[in-house]
Design a protein that fits this description.
- With 236 residues, the chain is an alpha+beta fold.
- It folds into 2 domains: 56 residues, 2-Layer Sandwich (Alpha-Beta Plaits), CATH 3.30.70; 165 residues, Leucyl/phenylalanyl-tRNA-protein transferase, C-terminal domain (Aminopeptidase).
- Helix content is 29%, strand content 24%.
- It has 7 helices and 11 strands.
- The strands form 2 sheets. It has a 7-stranded mixed β-sheet, with helices on both faces.
- A hairpin with an 8-residue loop joins β3 and β4.
Length: 236
């Protein structure tokens, strides 16, 4: 399949079914909230290094999880039962994305969260589409994740931990809260062993796109979720 070049003046993506075997679909376009929302709505997301042009992906298979079905190991349960960590939602979005930007990851020399990526997602947050799940210990932010919500689907983007299990705590809490609010799916994008160990599984792209199509009729819960728009109970 060819890699399509996008016109930055027109928000038009090729069908995601036309991506390469690697998942790469298109190059170019713009990084702003309108392009991101259109991309997510059809199963496409940006991922590229700072020295690269904008690259848009739609992998097959897709790593996904059912809300409420993330694996909670025996060693993780005390973090909930004994309140070792505290969860907050949408109180420190910019700090979360900045920490995700700075964290060192295996087999990566740099970060894919460029200055432009960061600003685009901050704009999405301010418009009520992007959200952060934040892990605190003794009043200090020690882990978290961020992503985008459309309809009854949550599209995870990145997570970080400065101490053990902090991002895992945020991910498990996200899963429980989404289940309590009748969400249907968590998109984790590209499969990897860590996600699989937590209960994520591979879904054929055709099935994922069918769910996305059905998701269009669902109402998006817009706004800052810390203001009571969601049931934020994450007890187990």
């Amino acid at each position: 399949m060819p890699v399509f070049k996008l016109n930055p003046e027109r928000i038009i993506f090729p069908p995601p079914e036309m991506s390469e075997s690697s998942g790469l679909l298109a190059i170019g376009g713009k990084l702003d909230y309108k392009w991101l929302l259109e991309g997510y709505s059809i199963g496409v997301f940006p991922w590229f290094n700072s020295e690269d042009p904008i690259l848009w992906w739609s992998p097959d298979p897709r790593s996904v999880a059912k809300p409420g079905e993330i694996y909670i190991s025996k060693s993780m349960k005390p973090y909930f039962k004994k309140s070792i960590f505290t969860l907050k939602v949408d109180t420190s979005f910019e700090e979360v994305i900045e920490n995700c930007q700075k964290i060192k990851r295996e087999s990566q020399d740099g970060t894919w969260i460029t200055k432009e990526i960061k600003q685009a997602y901050i704009d999405l947050f301010r418009r009520g589409y992007a959200h952060s799940f934040e892990t605190f210990k003794n009043g200090k932010l020690v882990g978290g994740l961020y992503g985008v919500s459309l309809g009854k689907m949550f599209f995870g983007e990145s997570m970080f931990s400065s101490i053990s299990n902090a991002s895992k705590f945020a991910f498990i809490s996200l899963s429980i809260i989404l289940k309590n609010n009748n969400f249907n799916l968590i998109d984790c994008q590209i499969p990897n062993p860590h996600l699989k160990s937590m209960g994520c599984y591979n879904m054929k792209k055709s099935d994922f796109l069918n769910l996305l199509y059905k998701n269009r009729i669902e109402k998006t819960i817009l706004g800052n979720w810390s203001s009571g728009l969601l049931n934020l109970d994450y007890s187990i």
